[in-house]
Design a protein that fits this description.
The complex is a heterodimer. By secondary structure, chain A is α/β, with parallel strands linked by helices. Chain A contains 10 helices and 17 strands. By secondary structure, chain B is α/β, with parallel strands linked by helices. The chains are: A alpha/beta, B alpha/beta.
């Protein structure tokens, strides 16, 4: 079977975990029709949310391993991995997948180490199943690596937006099996002891926004973002910035889009004054439509975009906002 | 007093066009130069902060060719006091091998009287992006580990580390010795001063040879993603293009007609 570690949020299964499930289902088909099992780490005393179960059924999951333990009230990567490895070994997984999120990669790294096998991070495709061979993103997505996973279990994280989450042709009614791993004190040493207040415009809003208005060095200074912020508010979107902007301290790091920031896949990305270096492109290339606003018609962001306006963002962006307001009356 | 080991890696710069070697086994960095990953620059800064705050030392280590001394000197120039080169043919090294080689350094220095209460690494290397050296190192050393950390400080025998979780900031408290993987964003790396660079040049670099027999990375070959021909549609020039942009926004359903 193929095991997929599933992350959830208030809406149920996260979008990237749905992508990992779709990816896992395709791998299972190529493996000769293997069953797909989901592994969900639960909170003590809480049942699996009906929305989660229904979404897992839409993804064609055959069985859900609901990992529960009295001591699993706070996140600990080692404890999650103990639960995951328990399922992998007891149910005989040929491969174990997760979304390539910080949490997904962290838990898989623990699992691969415990299983003493290799791990491939940020996988975008499967080249062969026997032996398992995958293609993954390296150098921030600027290069692809073909990699063999020769271990008894293939451990791989799926790069964000490597595939669209697609419902299975036939939905399933997965059976739910409670699974309680044997946890040691060592598994729980590195656990979350406190959580802080979520900032309203943190990266969660950025990664789920339908429209992102981005700005780069072309903003010119910390005061150069008023137009970008106004346009993003008019469109009900989020602000995203390039690495140079956060490095210069003009905007907070949680707004950074790129290899070392957030990976976004909005319906529309308006990239203002951003040259489109690899670092940034790695985080925004999954946007469905890209509109670049730049003074340089040869900038990579312009040549790779679907649409472009050649001009200074400080003139173009306010003019767009004015036009929207004029048409709204 | 906390002695800190910070692990860094010489990686190709990724600001220009990326080229591959003729055998498709590595990135040809002739025209883009070499650098440290952003995560590791922050790890170096945190290492010097923790060492400074506790009266301990900050030691930089890298596993790589003799050319990686350049990156060790960069770390020395911004506050690390010692540097160790584990000289190895990293083409043959996978993440488990790198972790084993670093674990060897920790054990060797421990036997020589320097116990690293804190080992810092970048969350993932900018080139290979494996996301696993910190975890494999921690298991080899039987120490607790946490990844994705923005800031950390030492309080007595505990390292207090904060990162960004899916629901907001998360705080971890790890008993030392511990391993922490740093993600960019919590601290600003400092730039080396001329005096810092001069001092760094004078520091003797300790060179070690790893005893690990590498298992490798599983790499078959590298390829470049196919270059898509530009299909950009220029909507106009300057503010006069605003009407065409809003027409597009209406077509996409981003603003109502």
């Amino acid at each position: 079977m193929i095991a997929v570690l599933v992350e959830t949020d208030d809406d149920g299964v996260t979008v990237v975990s749905q992508e990992a499930l779709t990816f896992g289902r395709e791998l299972a088909v190529r493996g000769g029709g293997l069953p797909v099992h989901a592994v969900v780490v639960g909170r003590p005393g809480a049942d699996l949310a009906p929305a989660v179960l229904s979404q897992l059924g839409e993804q064609g999951v055959d069985r859900v391993h609901h990992v529960v333990h009295d001591r699993l009230s706070a996140y600990s990567a080692a404890a999650w991995a103990a639960g995951l490895v328990d399922v992998v070994q007891s149910a005989g997984a040929r491969a174990v997948l997760a979304a390539g999120t910080p949490r997904g990669n962290e838990v898989l790294a623990h699992a691969a180490t415990r299983l003493d096998v290799a791990m491939a991070a940020n996988v975008v495709g499967v080249d062969g199943v026997d032996p398992l061979s995958v293609t993954r993103q390296v150098v921030g997505g600027a290069v692809l690596e073909q990699m063999r996973l020769d271990g008894a279990v293939g451990v791989l994280s799926v790069a964000g937006h490597a595939c669209e989450p697609v419902a299975a042709e036939q939905a399933t009614a997965p059976e739910v099996a409670a699974s309680t791993p044997a946890l040691t004190d060592a598994d729980l040493v590195a656990r979350v002891v406190r959580t802080g207040q979520k900032v309203p415009d943190s990266s969660g809003a950025l990664t789920s926004a339908r429209v992102v208005v981005g700005a780069g060095r072309g903003a010119g200074s910390a005061d150069g973002f008023k137009g970008v912020v106004q346009l993003s508010e008019l469109l009900g979107g989020a602000v995203g910035v390039s690495r140079v902007v956060t490095s210069l301290g003009w905007r907070p790091h949680h707004e950074q889009v790129g290899q070392t920031g957030s990976r976004i896949s909005p319906d529309l990305y308006i990239a203002c004054g951003i040259s489109g270096a690899i670092q940034h492109w790695a985080g925004c290339s999954s946007a469905k439509t890209i509109l670049a606003i730049n003074t340089d018609a040869d900038a990579p962001m312009v040549t790779r975009a679907h649409y472009a306006v050649i001009g200074d963002l400080h003139e173009v962006v306010p003019a767009i906002s004015e036009e929207i307001q004029r048409r709204r009356g | 007093m906390t002695d800190v080991l910070v692990c860094i890696k010489r990686v190709p710069g990724a600001s220009g066009e990326v080229l591959l070697s003729d055998d498709d086994q590595h990135v040809d960095a002739r025209h883009v130069g070499w650098t440290l990953s952003a995560h590791e620059e922050c790890a170096v800064e945190l290492a010097t902060q923790v060492a400074g705050a506790t009266g301990g030392t900050a030691t930089a280590v890298t596993v790589g060719s003799s050319d990686a001394v350049e990156q060790l000197r960069d770390a020395l120039a911004v506050g690390c006091g010692r540097a160790v080169l584990v000289e190895a043919d990293t083409e043959r090294f996978g993440p488990a091998d790198v972790a084993a080689a670093i674990a060897e350094v920790v054990r060797t220095h421990d036997a020589a009287g320097t116990t690293y209460g804190l080992v810092l690494l970048g969350n993932d290397a900018a080139d290979t992006g494996d996301f696993q050296v910190p975890v494999r190192l921690a298991y080899a050393l039987e120490r607790p580990v946490v990844t994705g950390i923005s800031t950390c400080e030492v309080d007595g025998e505990t390292v207090v580390a904060q990162g960004d979780g899916p629901d907001g900031p998360e705080v971890f408290e790890l008993p030392m010795p511990a391993v922490v993987a740093v993600m960019e964003g919590g601290v600003a790396p400092r730039y080396p001063s001329v005096i810092g660079r001069m001092k760094a040049k004078k520091v003797a670099i300790e060179t070690l040879t790893p005893s690990v027999e590498p298992v490798g990375s599983g790499r078959v070959r590298l390829t470049l993603p196919p270059e898509q021909p530009s299909a950009v549609q220029v909507l106009g020039h300057g503010p006069e293009a605003a009407a065409a942009v809003v027409d597009l926004l209406e077509d996409l359903g981003m603003v109502s007609r």
